[in-house]
Amino acid sequence: MDSLIPFTTSGSLVDCVDRKMLVILRDGRKLHGVLRSYDQFANLVLEDTVERIYHENLFAESWHGLFLIRGENVVLLGEIDLDREDDIPLRQVEYHELEPFHKSAIELKKQNDDAKSHILYKQKGFCKEGGEGDGY
Amino acid sequence: MLPLSLLNAAQNKPMLVELKNGETCNGHLINCDNFMNITLRDVYQTNSDGDRFWKLKECYIRGSTIKYLRIPDTLLDAVKEEQVRAREVGRSTRGTGPGNRGGRGAPMRGRGGRGGPMRGGRGRGRGVQ
């Protein structure tokens, strides 16, 4: 990264434009797409976007197209190395095959979090202040 | 093309808006502002599980509640072409009209580049050093 650019959103993301990027949202969704534009809030325009879900050593993609993501919801934005992209030790399957497993994994995580917060807030007396419930 | 300019250009286009709570709204964009507040017409709203639906004639969504918007794939290309055309027009009027040099020309170039102008700016900076 060029040290002459100050560490701002625009300074950090300028090199990512027109590259294939991975975006992780606060709700846990993982989107792969080409970054076409952004602004000072890290609002993003992603073209040819696919959503990827994972379960154990399987993954699946579902096509979404053009996205405008509100910056607040972005957790992570990372460049995908096109040379190594295909080397991952995961097998691609059909989205509709994997979706039920993915959904039940999310449901299980939610149940765990509910149980945890029940113990923390109801039994141990911790306060709930500021928590939005998703760890971010 | 900044994200909010793209949204502006999407007026009257169909789109899907997902809110932070997971609810979605499908409809045509009537209007939007710089806070990303939007109004939609002929809206189908779903709850976060996607198993209940409501039809609304028109709705207003506060920008801060939006997670993302899905817009038609063709819009990006349409806007790019529109920009090229606008630049052509700008160039020709700049050439003939003595009144509008400078002030109008500079922002035109900046808007058209999409990433380019920033890199250009950096290049100049390095040259000075």
UniProtKB/TrEMBL annotation, chain A:
Keywords: Cytoplasm, mRNA processing, Ribonucleoprotein, RNA-binding. GO terms for cellular component: Lsm1-7-Pat1 complex; P-body; ribonucleoprotein complex. Transmembrane segments: none annotated. It comes from the Eukaryota. Pfam families: LSM. Residues 8-83 form the Sm domain. It is found in: Cytoplasm; Cytoplasm, P-body. GO terms for molecular function: mRNA binding. GO terms for biological process: deadenylation-dependent decapping of nuclear-transcribed mRNA; mRNA processing. Its main location: cytoplasm. InterPro entries: Lsm1, LSM_dom_sf, PTHR15588, Sm, Sm_dom_euk/arc. Component of the heptameric LSM1-LSM7 complex that forms a seven-membered ring structure with a donut shape. Belongs to the snRNP Sm proteins family. Component of the cytoplasmic LSM1-LSM7 complex which is involved in mRNA degradation. This is U6 snRNA-associated Sm-like protein LSm1. It comes from Lentinula edodes (Shiitake mushroom).
TrEMBL record, chain B:
One of its GO terms (molecular function) is RNA binding. The keyword Zinc does not apply. GO terms for biological process: mRNA splicing, via spliceosome; nuclear-transcribed mRNA catabolic process. Residues 84-129 are annotated as: Disordered. SMART domains: Sm. Its main location: nucleus. Keywords: mRNA processing, mRNA splicing, Nucleus, Ribonucleoprotein, RNA-binding, Spliceosome. The keyword RNA-binding applies. Pfam families: LSM (PF01423). Belongs to the snRNP Sm proteins family. This is LSM complex subunit LSM4. It comes from Lentinula lateritia.
